[in-house]
Design brief:
The complex is a heterodimer.
Chain A: E1 5-7, E2 10-13, E3 19-24, E4 31-38, E5 42-50, E6 53-57, E7 64-68, E8 74-78, E9 87-94, E10 104-105, E11 109-113
Parallel strand pairs in A: 2-11
Antiparallel strand pairs in A: 1-3, 3-8, 4-5, 4-9, 5-6, 7-8, 9-10, 9-11
Chain B: E1 4-5, E2 10-14, E3 19-25, E4 32-38, E5 45-51, E6 56-59, E7 62-67, E8 72-77, E9 86-93, E10 98-100, E11 104-109
Parallel strand pairs in B: 2-11
Antiparallel strand pairs in B: 1-3, 3-8, 4-5, 4-9, 6-7, 7-8, 9-10, 9-11
Classes of the chains: A mainly beta, B mainly beta.
């Protein structure tokens, strides 16, 4: 079974631009969560989607948004990029019934904002 | 407000010895605790978990201990191997949301 895939793996953007990251969960997984990882903050929860609905949301500004499609693939969008948005963005999927326990993570998208 | 704290940013252990990684939490509503391992350029990998109704869970070389009164959990790796060198994240939460610590970098010296 293929793992969680994220595209692109690396991205360089300029302050003020917007960016869209993509995540394909493991086949059969309907829950997709997004996390931001920075050196001093660890993994911070952005949001979780289940069956195309945002089920939970972390404490990030409205510039961070996401969506999930009927095939469970998910996208995350960040508008008006700031230097502080430079981070590794991780997507994780899990089986229905597991919630966000025992999540399976993708390799991440490394976003650099200049 | 860090609800899950890993106070040791790094740890070095000799191969074959025990590695003990610690984690403290503040939210008494957490009912599920997990450890993840992360290698560079890869996403975190689930390692082991424990429910709040238990105080110990073992899986091969990995054992997690939970002390609810102290709001403390620890991961023991015995014996430690060079391939265990990675960043270890502690996480705690419930069904729909988990909170991660900032990680502890473990180096196992051959």
């Amino acid at each position: 079974k293929a793992g969680v895939t994220q595209t692109p793996r690396y991205l360089i953007k300029t302050r003020g631009q917007q960016v869209t990251l993509s995540c394909s969960p493991i086949s059969g997984h309907r829950s997709v969560s997004w996390y931001q990882q920075t050196p001093g903050q660890g993994l911070q929860f952005l949001f979780e989607y289940f069956s195309e609905t945002q089920r939970n949301k972390g404490n990030f500004p409205g510039r961070f948004s996401g969506r999930q499609f009927s095939n469970s693939r998910s996208e995350m969008n960040v508008s008006t990029l700031e230097l502080g948005d430079s981070a590794l963005y991780l997507c994780a999927s899990s089986l229905e019934g597991q919630g966000v326990r025992e999540q399976y993570f993708g390799p991440g998208t490394r976003l650099t904002v200049t | 407000d860090q609800q899950v704290k890993q106070n040791s940013p790094s740890l070095s252990v000799q191969e074959g010895r025990i590695s003990i990684l610690n984690c403290d939490y503040t939210n008494s509503m957490f009912d599920y605790f997990l450890w993840y391992k992360k290698y560079p350029a890869e996403g975190p990998t689930f390692l082991i978990s424990i429910s709040s109704i238990k105080d110990k869970n073992e899986d091969g070389r990995f054992t997690v201990f939970l002390n609810k009164s102290a709001k403390h959990l620890s991961l023991h790796i015995v014996p430690s191997q060079p391939g265990d060198s990675a960043v270890y994240f502690c996480a705690a939460g419930g069904y729909q949301k988990v909170t991660f610590g900032i990680g502890t970098k473990l180096q196992v010296i051959p």
